[in-house]
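Lab notebook, bench 4. We co-purified these components, and the gel suggests they stay together. Before we commit to crystallization screens, I want a quick structural picture of the whole thing.
Request: model the full complex, all chains together.
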Amino acid sequence: MRRRHTLSQTQIRRRNMSNIGQDSAARLLEVNNIEVVYNDIVQVLRGVSIGVTEGKIVSLLGTNGAGKTTTLRAISGLLKPENGHIREGYIKFDGNDITNVLGTKVVTLGAVMVPEGRRVFKHLTIEENIRAGSTTRKDGSKKIKADFDAMYQLFPRLTEIGNKMAGYCSGGEQQMIAIARAMMAAPKMLMLDEPSLGLAPLLVKEIFENIKHINKEMGTTILVVEQNAKIALAISDYAYIMESGKIVLEGHSKELQNNPDVKEFYMGITKGGNRKSFKEVKSYKRRKRWM
Amino acid sequence: MTYFIQLLISGLVVGSIYALSALGFVLIYKSSRVLNIAHGQIIASGAFIAYALTVYAGVPLIISFFLSMVITFFLSMAVERVFLRRLIGEPIISVIMVTIGLMSIIDGIIYLTPFGSTNMSFPKFFPPEPLNILGATVSWTQVVGVVLTAIIIAALSWFFKNSTLGISMRAVSDDQLASMSIGISVPKVFGLAWALAGLTAAAAGGIIGNITGLNFDTLHAFGIIVFPVVILGGLDSIGGAVVAGVIMGLIQQFAAGYLDGNWGLQGTAEVLPYIILLILLLFKPHGLFGTHEIERV
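Here is the predicted assembly.
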């Protein structure tokens, strides 16, 4: 991979500009310095730039309220129902400008999001949930049927439990349904909003194995938003860390895994083994101008 | 016994029309949570369009019946596009006020035409001699009306169960944000729900018109009886609307047949549906088949 700038000693840099430490030639998604406001007054994103290279897994990490979900919604064109819009900057996907366009258009271009908290259609059966994902497809029923069967091969668990109402499935099963539903739209890029939310550790592992499989075997580019930094860094190629509506750190996942700040704040591993108080963490972050 | 069968059959006939009338109301409520107060007016418009095509334009009855369904399909779609699309996300009371306004406007337009004041009846199409079922008499118009109703309901059920578009319409009524995340266009689904409601309303109007004759007040009354029917069935259940429609038809016919004239009772058919509705709601506030929120614990 071609490096466009030199990275600092920890191979990570604070970023303000829009050039990004990934190969920009094969950039599938480019989010350039966007500012998002809700109700024309509440500013949530303060100049966020991220890039996703085709075929890679990119993760977007951060604590509650950092703006991860808003970033995903800005990309998928789902800000409008929440009365938000992109005030500054632009988003490009696969060569098309998708700044402030409607969600339906974004899906037809090939970027599909799995919403936070799974949001399966509770009163529809599992099969109907998965079929609903193919609404925007126009490439013939044969291909759709093949993809439908492929989903059951990807998630054999869904065959085992029978075709029951999705609302009665367990959290892990619902996450599988939500991913399968999104994959039925045949996306070039799949975006996942906290797939680990509320799942048992073993299931989290399984879901991330599935995500990895989708990327490696099916060739779908992945952008995953997570609070669970450890598992997200383990599967992703590149990662961004958000705090208070800004990207504060970015780098290759392997390098971030060894970064002492990341270890301490996002993975809960301290050098001495004893935990710092929240107050100290806050002042440290402020000193580094993360907040 | 013959009397009982006669009441049973006319109850089923009336009930199936109630079901078809209620269907459109449920379709709109289910997808967009809008209570369409003007549904009776759409039923009436459909009936008048069918009549106008048959009598004024000389189109054969069967063709004009289906043509009126198609026309009302596009008319309702236009109503949604012009009046209701811009109200998405507004408070529900504003939306209801708009449908009340629509009701008044359509009423006004119909009163301007000859349909508002005079009684008319469709030209006789089916053989006039009635059928005999177990001693009870049924007219051909009624039989065809029930069969058509059954076909339309079956076709719609198939559409919602098996077609991707139907499934995506149900998806929107389940979770709008999730539907948008997979690219379903929510406004388009609302438009289609209105269009399908118009289609079923026109069918109901055409069948009522053929059985009872065209009278604006009668058609109006069908629009009002829709409310107890859909609440009995559960506001957002298509199957519920069908079952509740038939129940309501049977209740009315049996009440008119057995209660009226005995013990000094009169007009029970008009009151009984509401009495039963009130009692039922005490025990089943979601109606018979209304959706319960699925809560996993």
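The first helix of chain B runs from residue 2 to 32. Worth comparing against the SEC data before the next meeting. The beta strands of chain B are 131-133, 136-138.
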